[in-house]
Every structure is written in C-alpha cells, then in structure tokens.
Fold each of these.
Amino acid sequence: MLPNSLVSKLEEIVGEKNISTDKYELLAYTITDRSYVSRIQLMGLNLKPEYMYDCVVWPQTTEQVSEIVKLANKYRVPIIPYGGGTNDMGGTVPLTGGIAVDLKRLDKIIEINERSARVHTQAGVILQILEWELNKHGLTTGHAPACMYDATIGGTLSTRSSGSLSNKYGKIPDMTLGLEVVLPTGEIVNIKPVPEGSTGPALKHLFLGAEGVFGIITSAVLRTFQLPEVRRFRSVLFKNLHNGIEAGRKIMQSGISPAAIRLSDEAETMKNHKMQGCYCVFCFEGPREIVDAEEKIVMKICQEEGAEDLGSEEGKRWWERKYYMYYSTPRSSVYPPEEGKIRFAIVPDTAASYDEIEPLYYDILNVVKKYGISVYSHFSHWYPHGTMVYPVIYFNVIDNIEEAMKIYTAVWNDIAAVILKYKTASLNHHHGVGFILGRYLDKEYGEPLFRIFKEIKKILDPNGIMNPGKLGL
Ligand SMILES: Cc1cc2nc3c(=O)[nH]c(=O)nc-3n(C[C@H](O)[C@H](O)[C@H](O)COP(=O)(O)OP(=O)(O)OC[C@H]3O[C@@H](n4cnc5c(N)ncnc54)[C@H](O)[C@@H]3O)c2cc1C
C-alpha cells in the first residue's frame, strides 16, 4: 500500500482521471498476457500482495513522467514503466509492488520528416498506429513484429525487438536515431538523432534493451523507408534442416537481403504443412528490379541445396495470416484447458553463428526430449554471420501448480545452461530477459562486465527504484 500522501501527490501530477488504485485494474496490470511465469507464480502464490502493483498512473507529458519519478525517489517506491504489457520475460511483473507508469497516453506522433526519412514519436504510440500513419505518407519503419497491434514504441525499444522483415530493415535498435529518456533521478536527457557519429560510444544503446531499469523512454526518433514498390513471396521445401540453413547462410552472405526468410524445422513443417522436410518461405520487397534479382539469386541457391520450388501462393497466405497464431488462440498460453489443469508454452529464442546454430538447436531438442514435451521450431531473423532459432515448447497438461513450476523452472535452467555453453549464442534474441532470464545475465556477461553493469545501475539509479529485480539487478 502506498502512503495516502504519495497517492494525492501523484494525483496532483497526472490529474484524478489518470491514476487508479482499483484492485481489479491493478490485477489486470499485474497479470500480463504473456508473462507466463508471473501467472503461474501468481496462481501458486495465491496472488500474494507483493506481486501486485499498488497504483497505476497514466502520464501525458514527459514532464509529468519526470515529476512521478522524482516523487518515487522521495518515497523510495518502485516504478515499473509499462507499455503494451506484451513482454514474454516478466519485465513488467511488480516483484516488489510499486507504481505502474503506463506510457500509452504519450501517444503523439510528433513529426514525420519525409526529406530526412525519420519520424519522431512519443513512446506510448502503438506500433501498428504509427505504421498506419506512416503508410499515409508512403512510408514505413519496416518494423513488423507479431505484437504490433499491442506493443508500444517504448516497450519495443526497451526489449530490442525484431520484426518479420528484420533481414532487410534491421532490429529496432538499428532503426533508432534519437531518444528522450527520463532518468531514474527524474532528469530528462535527449540523445540527438544524428545520422551517424564518432563521439565516443553511442549512449542510446544504454537504454535500448534496458527494460526500464535505466530510465523511462518518453520519445524516439526512428528511421523511415519508402513503402516498397513490390512485395513478393516464394516458398520451397528442403530435404532437411542442414540444407535449409546452408541456403539461408549463402543467401545472406551473397550480398542480398530478402526481407524475410522463415525456415521451419521438420516438426513444424509436418504440423503446419503436412509435408516431410523443411518448409521455407521468402519475402522480397523493394524496387521491382532488385526484387527480380533477389528472387533469382535465392532460387538458384535453393536449387543448389536441392530444394523443391512450391511457388508463391503459400507465401502470400503466410503473410496474410502471420499473426493468426498469436491472436486466434487465447492470448495467454497459460490457461486452464479444463478445470484444475495447467498448460503453457515457453519460447527460448536465441541466435548463434552458422558454425554453432545447428548443434545448439539439437542440444535444445535434447533438453526438451528429456521432459517429454513437444517442440516446433523455425529459423527467422538472418544475418551474414548467423541466424536465430525460435523453438516453441508446448508443455503437456499438468495437474498441479507445484508440478508446473518445477518443470517450468527445470526446463528454463537446462535451456539457459545449453545456450550459455556456446561462444556465439545469445541468451535471448528479441524478447529481452526480464526476471525469467535475468537470473542468468551474470553468466551471459561474465566478470568483470556484470560487476560494471551493476555499478552503472547504482550510478544511474542510486535508490534502486527503477524496475527492481529485472536484468539480474
Ligand atoms: C502476440 C505476441 C507476439 C509477439 N511477437 C513478437 C515479435 O514478433 N518480435 C518481438 O520482438 N517481440 C514479440 N513479442 C514480445 C513483445 O511484444 C515485445 O517484448 C515488445 O517489444 C514489448 O513491448 P510493450 O510495449 O508491450 O512493452 P511492455 O511489455 O509493457 O514492457 C517491456 C519491458 O520494457 C519496459 N518498458 C516499457 N515501456 C518502456 C519505456 N517507455 N521506457 C522504458 N522501459 C519501458 C517494461 O518495464 C518492461 O520491462 C510478442 C508478444 C506477443 C504477446
């Protein structure tokens, strides 16, 4: 419970309509749709009060955000920045209670600068709304993650998100030119939207992926691109996964970047397409001449890897339905399939270099096999030096919360241990670490880097109020 005097002062800052201490509202904010562990833990813990927000506020200006942060420092109350609440790693779970600062009323698109190909937007703007607005000007950010109907610019920046077209347009950090951030002390800083610079380390990266532990992003300047003249699809079937990965590697190292390459493993190919082998869909977009050339080069490489051409229709269908799997089922993967039973899924997406990605993938399958769980994987987000694997692990229906928690924790521990064994594998590729994977960040960084990381946190956030317990801090 927050002191009444703090609630009154918050009300003075944001106005009485922009604050709530209603317990159902707080519960809705606490149990995010996709923070699997939080829901399981909440169920297991019978909604213990320490896992609940004490208050939610909806500021409308950067200055209000700054005032809220200053006040929270005075009262030593935790603050959790809140965007769409779509994160997968428990980033918005209030581990020690506190104030949810929901940024969604910072919802202005401040400037679209067509000549310099950039857009300045407040952090609470929903990705799809920004995209619709840019499309009216013949522009796009090129950022198309499956969460774009729910996630905000600020949340996406804070998790180093990646969209379906990342091969061509990059991840969100690649798209970010400038930032406005309210530091954990309440000071407001601006990182200029320079095209590029050589002025010491690019400090924007301190906040990109910081999941709210180093401050609150209130606005950002992002790159924009012309809407493509042509968007085209092509699908192929590889005999096995190795051929598919080899084709992807050769394509990305040939000097072209098809906007999307989505390669399914054998299990996913059988489940989704009822075929043996590994299904792969390509998306090409841009000026017609470039698309023609890219498609030709890709098909030549696929042929060399023994792939069967499946034409363009399947690819079009994938594009039209690519968000169905996320939005057509109950939003959370943690839901009781029948009374008293628990079912859930986890997605330990990771990226590694081409010499390590296959052994890493098979190691993950071996972990999963040990627990008798189903897993379907795809490879998307390709780079010249490596790729990402996205295993979706479905847990069988489990009868009780203790059993669910035990298996859940054991699988994460085993998978994290496997990933950490590889020199080029990243603990996570685009979902962030929150507190689920934050527990292993000391091992990901190693010493003395993790100690330095903690020192940076102490300097920026001397009272430790910003999103405590996340990123291993
Ligand atoms: C259906 C679905 C599909 C998804 N598909 C993808 C996908 O294709 N690609 C992908 O990358 N991810 C995907 N995700 C994961 C998720 O959507 C991302 O992590 C997203 O980037 C989070 O944005 P958000 O606005 O919901 O942030 P939140 O979940 O609200 O917050 C995420 C983290 O950032 C912090 N935060 C939020 N806003 C700010 C801010 N303004 N300043 C500082 N910190 C802040 C929070 O405290 C939290 O730690 C998907 C999730 C769902 C539910």
Amino acid sequence: MPVLSTRTGAESETDVLCSPGRGDVLDVVGIGFGPSNLALAIALAEYNQEVPEADRVSARFYERQPAFGWHRGMLLKDTTMQVSYLKDLVSMRNPCSRFSFLAYLQARDRLVDFINHKTLFPSRREFHDYLEWAAEPFRGAVDYGREVVDVVPVEEAGEVTHFQVLTRAGGQQAEPAVQRARNVVVAGGLRPRLPDGTSLSDRVWHTSELLGRLETLPAGPGQAPRSFTVVGAGQSAAETVAHLHGEFPDADIHAVFARYGYAPADDSAFVNRIFDPEAVDHFYTSPDDVKEMMFDYHRSTNYSVVDIELIDELYRRLYQEKVAGKQRLHVHNLTRLLTADSGDEHVRVGIEFLPTGRRDVLRTDYLVLATGYRPTDLHGILGSVEPILCTDKGRVRVNRDYSVESTLPGPAAIYLQGPTEHSHGIASSLLSNTAVRAGEITKALVKGLVRDIDAPRAPALTAAAPV
Ligand SMILES: Cc1cc2nc3c(=O)[nH]c(=O)nc-3n(C[C@H](O)[C@H](O)[C@H](O)COP(=O)(O)OP(=O)(O)OC[C@H]3O[C@@H](n4cnc5c(N)ncnc54)[C@H](O)[C@@H]3O)c2cc1C
C-alpha cells in the first residue's frame, strides 16, 4: 500500500493513493481542494507517516476547477499576502513539515533572496506558486474538474454509517458518480456576492474573474477601454482600482462606494491576536452577545478595509493628477450603486449621491463589482444531508472540532472548513488558522475512525515528496 513518502527509498516515487475498488468506503472525502483541504491532506499524510499501516487514513478530494487554483482572477501584479508566510499550510501546526513556505523557498532556490527581501508578506503570485507546489504531490488523491453535487446519508439500524458523495464532471447532464465515505470535509470556499438587481455579463464582472476578463479584451489600436467603474471599498476594490489605473493609462477609472473613504485594515499586533488559535476557543465558548461584540469590535481586521500602503498610493495618484490638471481617477464616495444596464457598447451605471439623493448615470466601458463574497451555499453541496443537520437560528450547529451536530447518531460525520464564522469566529474563512484547524480535524477524524476500527478500510492517503 502506498504511504506518505519521504525523499528516501522505494516510497519516494509514490504519487498517491486511494484507488476505488480496494475497500470502497473511504475514511474521508474532501469537497474542494483549496488551501483548507490541501492543509488537511498534508496533515493526514503526515499522520499516516507516523502510524502503523493498519491505522492509516484513506482520503480522496474533489475539486471542480480543472487544476489547482487559488483566486486566480485576483493574482494581480504587485499584490501581496495579508497574512504572514509563517501562517502557511503547516507551520503553525508542524514547523518541521516539509510542506512549509520555507521548504518551498528552498526547493525553488530562493530562500536566501527571500530573507534579504525582509518581508513577512510574499506576493500573492508567489504564494499561489507555493500552494501549487504543495498540492502537486497530492495530484493522485484529487479528482480535478469534478464537482460534488450532493451528499446522501446512509442509515443502518438508526445510525448513519457513511455517506454517498455524488460527483459530476462535464456539466449538468453528466451521470453522477458515487463515492462512499465515512466522513466528509466540506471546504468549498466563498462565492461572489453581487449587489441586488445586478447580473454578470461581458461588460459587468465580479473581481473574482478580473484577470481572465482583462485577458480577453480586444488589444488592437483604438480598441483599449476608455473607462472602468469599480464598485466597492474593500481590499479587492482598491487593488482593482490601482491595477486598472496602472494598466490602462488612457482610461478613466471611477471608484464608487458608500463610505466616506477607503478605511485602513487593522493589523496591529494586539488586535491581530483575534486570529490566534486561542481566539477560536474564546469565540467558540462565548455567549451570542459576546460573539457579536467581538465581531463588531474587530470587523476592521478583514471586512471592507484596505492595506494602508495601498490607500496612501491611491491618494498619491489622485493628488498628482490634481497637480497635473488631468484627472482620470474619480472617487465617488458616499455614493451607492442603483442600476447596471449592460449594452453592446457600454454599461449605464445608475448611482446616487447619498447626502443629497442626487442621481446620475455613468456611461462606462466595463463595470467591476468588487462587492465581496458570501460563504459556501451548504444547501447546494449537502442537499440530502441537510434534514439530519442540527440548526440554530437558521445556521448549522458546529462542534468545536468542526464536525456538524447531527440528529442521527453514528460514526459518520460532516466537517466544515470555512462557513463557521458564527461558531468559530472571524478567522474561519481566512488562512490564519488553516494549519491548526487541519490538525484539529485530523485528530477528530482519527478519534472517530478508531471507534469504527472494525470497518473495512480503503488504502491510505499518501503524498510524494514535493519537488
Ligand atoms: C482575492 C483574495 C485574496 C485573499 N487573500 C487572503 C490573504 O492574503 N490572507 C488570508 O488569510 N485570506 C485571504 N483570502 C481569503 C480566502 O478565503 C482564503 O485565502 C482561502 O482561499 C480559503 O481557502 P479554502 O480552501 O477554504 O477556500 P477556497 O480557496 O475558495 O477553495 C475552495 C475550493 O473548493 C472548490 N469547490 C467549491 N465547491 C465545490 C464543489 N461542490 N465540488 C468540488 N469543488 C468545489 C472551489 O473550486 C475552490 O477551489 C483571500 C480571498 C480572496 C478572494
């Protein structure tokens, strides 16, 4: 049976595991293969390396993208991570892991150069390369281009013994395939949030698709866009404004947002402790009103805020244009989006200046909605499991170990990575706790599987060494 390989001996060529048919109930199926489930795959593989073969955990992951990709549409030139590289996929859980960002730098022969760079915040492009590098050894444990469309609980004698995970590749018409699993870990990430009444088109985009859209713009003489309008006041909005302003030197860029101005993200040291593993315990054990208070106090660590350096840079550009007497960066603050009518030639963007109620229409070539994200729609992924999940005020009840409370007992469990802000706090959808959370879920999975030790096992999750 293939095991997590080290760089030595016969194990090193192993590329992965879990062939269906060799014991067809897997211990774990992961939905989505972004950083959260990648961190889990690493934690499981590292666990498997440490235990006797009979105790190893089998796992398989389904990812609807055709290949590994982390917010590809926003891998803008000059953007950096908003989290220290030490909060990579592993270091907070296992600083000795060979999947750390430092190990990646060494593999890429850039360790010394990075040290000289004196930064904790690599570029987003470099971090993407790190994630791809870490994901590559798990290629054989991931079905890319395959979407999970439902999870069906299988009940025997009043207990849920396992789930049937229905997956589909190649569109709605394709016949779903079924994989059985004792545990399911949902890490489906975020979905673009659109303002009411807007829909996407060739001229109305969400930031999540920005780079892909820009690549398809006509490039011939006289065809360059003359104007863009960007709605939103968060980090993605400010990055988009800066990017478009820099890349299209002849275009007018309109920034539209309801705030008075871009507000700085609070990443000061004491406040940053809200992202510590210990803060998850504090949040989890707090009564609802304290949870709300923590959120309200510290929203400005993550929501609708912008890195101060970027704010300063945008203001510098705005001011220099004033000095030069040629303004093409236009800030419409205290302004809300009313309508967006997409035509063949341009978009008519209806806006309202809030202090006076004055309404205007901006004619713009392209409208970019930097209006954020909403959590994964669990209903879409977990459809058939929903009736057995316990809820409270319309939200699923999540145990401290990230498993969802179920109305039916049994060894099978669903775990959530991401949509747990209501139970585990503000770091839930971010990278800060990814490594630690993956370790906690691994522990919980192993504990659950030990209870179920007599069940037949599928082959274990392994990974080849990263190169
Ligand atoms: C532009 C941008 C920059 C960010 N930068 C930072 C940062 O610097 N620091 C930070 O802490 N956080 C950052 N974030 C927050 C972000 O949520 C995390 O970085 C990270 O992506 C969370 O990882 P994840 O695996 O939970 O979700 P994702 O990275 O979103 O991955 C989820 C994956 O699940 C797949 N999927 C979804 N549904 C299904 C399904 N039904 N079947 C199969 N596959 C499915 C998706 O295709 C996706 O690949 C950023 C977010 C954005 C949008």
